[in-house]
Amino acid sequence: MGKSILNKVKINSLKIIRSPNGNVIRILRKQDLKNWNFKEAYFSTIKFNKIKAWKFHLKMTLNLVVTKGKVKFVFYSKNEDRFRVIEIGEKKNIRLSVPPRIWFGFEGMSKKESTILNLTNFQHSSREILRCKKNNIKFNW
Amino acid sequence: MGKSILNKVKINSLKIIRSPNGNVIRILRKQDLKNWNFKEAYFSTIKFNKIKAWKFHLKMTLNLVVTKGKVKFVFYSKNEDRFRVIEIGEKKNIRLSVPPRIWFGFEGMSKKESTILNLTNFQHSSREILRCKKNNIKFNW
Fold it and tell me: In this model, does residue B1 exceed pLDDT 80?
C-alpha cells in the first residue's frame, strides 16, 4: 500500500497485565498519541448485518476498541479509489487509531449487537463531519 | 448520609442517542468534570465471585462504566466506619465518578467475566495507590 493514506489507520495491540482474579487491559495513555487531547468518550452500538456508512471527520482522531461482538470497519481513500478492511472482535484486544480525513463505515458481524468504544479529541459536532449515503461509495459489504 | 465523603461518589446516567441500526451512548465529555484531564483508559476484568479489594487512590479520579457482566462496587469511609454499595450491570448505562481518597473494592457478580472501563486523570502508578488486604476492612461480601 506504500504511501496510501489508509496506512495511517494504526492497529495497536492493547497491553494486558495478567492477574488471577481478572486482567487489566490498557486501552490508551495520553502520551501514546501526539497532539491529542481527550474531549469525549462514547459507545456506538451496531446491530447484526447493519451498516453505518459513510462518515468523514475533518478534525477528529478516533480511537476505537470493540468491547462486545465483532465489527467490520471499512476505510476508503477517494484519491486512490482504494479500500482497507479491518475486522475486530472483542477478544482481539486491539485499538484502531484513525486520523481525520478518511472516509469510513462499519458493519455489525456478530448475531448479538456489537459495541465500539471511541475515545476522541473533539466533541461530537455535525459541523466536523461529512457524510454520504451508503451507495455513493461502492463497496461489496 | 448527609456530609459523608461517600456521597462524593456520583452516579451519572449516560445519555443515549437512539438510532435504528444501533444507538450511540455518551460516556464522558471533558467538560463534565472540573479539573480533570485524561491520562489513561483501561479495562479491569473480574471473574465471577472474585474480589479485588482494597485500594485507595491519593490523586486519581476514576470514571467507571461496566461494559460486560455485572459488578458490585463497595466504597468505605474509614472516618465514619461506613460503607456504600453500588451494583451495576452492562445494561444500566451508568457512569460512576469516584474522587480520590476513598477506599474501594469490587466483586464480579455475573457468571461470565465482567469488564469495567476506567477513564482516569493520572497514569497508573503504585506510588499513587494505597492498598490493604481484603480482611483488613471487615465487609460481608
Answer: no
